[in-house]
Structures are given as C-alpha cells and as structure tokens.
Design goal:
Layout: E1 6-7, E2 19-32, E3 41-54, E4 58-62, H1 69-77, E5 84-89, E6 92-96, E7 101-102, E8 110-113, H2 127-137, H3 142-155, H4 172-185, E9 190-194, H5 202-219, E10 222-227, H6 230-236, E11 239-244, E12 247-253, H7 254-259, H8 264-272
Parallel strand pairs: 1-12, 4-10, 4-11, 8-9, 9-10
Antiparallel strand pairs: 2-3, 2-5, 5-6, 6-7, 11-12
Helix pairs in contact: 2-3, 2-4, 3-4, 4-5
Length: about 280
C-alpha cells in the first residue's frame, strides 16, 4: 500500500511565480488480457495525482520504473487520456474528464523530449522533416517551417544545413539535440523531458542537461523532467515530486527533499539510486 504523502516544504515556492500548469486528480488504469480465456488484468498507473508547475521552473518527477511518472508525462502532453482529473495551463483547459474536454496534442504548446534519441527519430525522414513535423500539423507552410527549423537547430547547437541529413549521420548526443529541437519547434510554453539523458554517456548527459538549462533561461520555459536519477535532479531541478505505484508520496524543493526525505519510499530511493 502506498504511504501517505509527505511534503518537505521548509521554503515554500514563491507565490509571485505564476502557474504554468496545474493538474488535479489525474487517475489512469490500464486493462489488458494475457490470454484469450484469461480475465482482464488492471494496472493502476496514476492514482489521484495533483501537482503544479510554475513559470521558468524545472520540476522533477521521480520514481522507479512502473511508478507512473512516464504515464503522467504522456497524459500532460496528450498522448494518453486519463480516467479522471483535469489539466490547465493558465485559463486554458487542456483536458477535463468530467466535462469531456480534450485539447489535441498539436494544439497544447507542450513539447516533449523522448528517452531514446535513436528510436524516437524516423530514420527515413530528413532532420528538417522530423523537426518540422509538428509545424506542418498545425498548418504552417513550407517556407515558415524551414525558417523555424533553421532557428531551433541553431538554438540547440546544430546548423541549418543539417536539415538535409538523416538521423544515422549524427552521434547519440546530436540526435538528442535534434529531439530537443523538435520539441522546441512548436514554440512551447512547457517542455517535458522523459528520461531524456538516461541512454546517453555521462559526458553527453551533461551537455544535454546544460542545453536544457540554457534554453530554460533564454526562453523562460517551464520544464517537467521525468527521471529516476537523483544526481540529475540535484543538478538540474528546482522542485521535486516523488511517485510510487501511481501516487505522489512526497513533494518539496529539491534541496529539502534530498537533505531530509520524510517518506520511507523516498528514503529508499535516495539510498538505492546512483548519483551522477
């Protein structure tokens, strides 16, 4: 059974920081069958999850595999529909299950960086088409797309002429930069990074983490960073939400939670996960 949530908030978040995103009561259960005659199996991925993300903040969502953190990210970006709850950005409702409201992913202005920079990029598409795909979906013409793609490639340390190349022609770190560029192309107000550095070498991890910090500072983005790596949380993030079995068990400023975790699950997680 999940333990009651602990809040480690000796230094509450500044009330002057405006909310970028707010969620309340998100729940999601997956139902599957293991065989033709077997009974359906239910897996609770999210259980009444609520959190807030403030502008220019980097919020860590931390937990072991199966804790629900990636499902939460997919719900926020619109790739999964929850069974209950709502998500808002300012006065705009992204989803509200009770009211049957759902904003399509292409209209949410939320960019997502995926875990594997190789499998998340279509090897048959040029970099220009990969990064610009979301722009075509929202109706931009070819000239607008190429101008925007050139701009975001420059922002992540690549070149406009790289638009004509293919993913296999880049290193792992460069491919993740392409993933960042794709997420930024739609001019998001929120960036979600789902285990965005876990498949990279340590030196390349630092390059990508520093890139995210630079982009946050330059564009003023709010960032949700989903990870199991406490060292990354310590280096990158301002605030942390700890999840176990689909539920939030602890939340607070990163420095406070890492120094004095209140929940037993958080204590075990900190003891078990290697630092960067």
């Amino acid at each position: 059974m999940t333990q009651p949530e602990a809040t480690t908030d000796t230094a509450p978040r500044a009330a002057t920081m405006a909310l970028a995103l707010e969620s309340r009561g998100l729940s999601k259960t997956f139902v599957s069958r293991t065989g033709l005659w077997s009974a359906p199996k239910s897996t609770r991925a999210l259980a009444d999850v609520s959190f807030e993300l403030r502008k220019s903040e980097i919020l860590a969502i931390v937990g072991e595999s199966g804790s629900g953190k990636s499902t939460l990210g997919r719900v926020i970006v619109g790739l999964e529909r929850p069974d209950a709850g709502w998500v808002r950005t300012g006065a705009t409702t992204l989803l509200d299950v009770s009211r049957r409201e759902f904003t399509p992913p292409a209209r949410r202005r939320i960019g997502m960086i995926f875990q594997d920079p190789t499998s998340s990029l279509n090897g048959r598409m040029t970099i220009g088409d990969i990064v610009g795909e979301g722009l075509y979906l929202r109706g931009d013409n070819r000239r607008q797309v190429r101008e925007r793609v050139a701009k975001v490639l420059d922002l992540v340390g690549l070149r406009a002429r790289d638009m004509e190349r293919y993913p296999h022609q880049f290193s792992g770190g460069q491919r993740q930069r392409i993933g960042v560029a794709r997420a930024l192309a739609i001019e998001p107000s929120i960036l979600i990074a789902d285990e965005a550095v876990s498949s990279l070498d340590v030196s390349v991890q630092m390059q990508v983490l520093n890139l995210i910090l630079d982009i946050r500072d330059e564009l003023g983005l709010a960032v949700i960073f989903i990870t199991h790596n406490i060292g990354v949380v310590e280096y990158l993030c301002d605030y942390v939400v700890v999840m176990s079995r689909g539920a939030v068990v602890e939340r607070g400023p990163v420095a406070d939670v890492l120094a004095e975790p209140q929940n037993a699950y958080t204590q075990r997680l900190l003891a078990a996960v290697p630092r960067l």
